Amino acid sequence: MLGALMDRVTPWVGRLIAINAVVLLLQQTLFPSPVLQDLVTFDPALALSRPWTFLTYIFVHGGLLHLLGNSIALFVFGPSVEERLGSRTFILYYLGCGVGAALVSLLFWFVAPGFIYPFIGASGAVLGVAFAFAKFNPDAELFIFPLPMPIKARTLIMIIAAFDVVGALLANDGVAHVAHLGGLLCAWFYFTVVGSGSPYEPPHIAPRRPRVPVSAPAARSDGMERRAERQPERTAVPERDLVAEEQAEMDRLLDKISAKGIGALTQHERQFLEAVAERRRQGN
Predict the structure, then answer these.
(1) Considering only the top CATH level, what class is 2-193?
(2) Residue 141, SS3?
(3) Mean pLDDT by 10 residues, the chain (284 residues)
(4) Among 262, 273, 269, which residue's Cα sits nearest to residue 80?
């Protein structure tokens, strides 16, 4: 069971979960001073004088439950998104949503300072990942406690956004609702500008034409051997076997996954695998 869960974790999802856990452990053991936590907390009133907090707050959590909530959400939504975007794009997207959540909070603070308080946690970045998951898998059904029935991913994102809008306007519960909305807004902006990517279209493989055997020259009817006329020699051009080339590329990519993990694949290579798998499913 544990092995299956570990196999599901992609490179950056595993690293982020581990980094967040180590930071919380250090917070509660070697560096429990509130002064140190204050230095890495995002405070809109001090953000411009502490620019590092636009990034550091993402890796700091207020306790074990806070960490578990974000880690579980990252574990559920992250691997699918990292496989689709690629590891390098995924980590940049994750950090971008986190920094963007802080920027949105800062802009909102300029308009309404009383609604924004200092905050920590990866929720803005994680909600950006959840948005990407819903973008790629809108009809995926998820079981969310305590709901008794599954809910589609896109519906879940709309409910979360509505909840945070209400929370930002009416609630004073200590939750960074504006930062949550900022993470979702940055995710929406990313997919609006960059798009979700066009599916890979493999080259059309034409059916192979049967080879027609060449018959030997017929003998003359008078019994005399016919002298063949010398013809200029033709250099045979080998026919490309596209099916074999595709299978060879599949074998290469599978070997790469076995040696380095799926995170080592480029986006083009992942699109190639998805396209071949889909075409073979349709052909069955």
Answers:
(1) mainly alpha
(2) strand
(3) 67 97 95 92 96 97 96 96 95 98 96 88 97 95 85 95 92 88 97 67 42 46 45 51 77 75 72 77 65
(4) 262
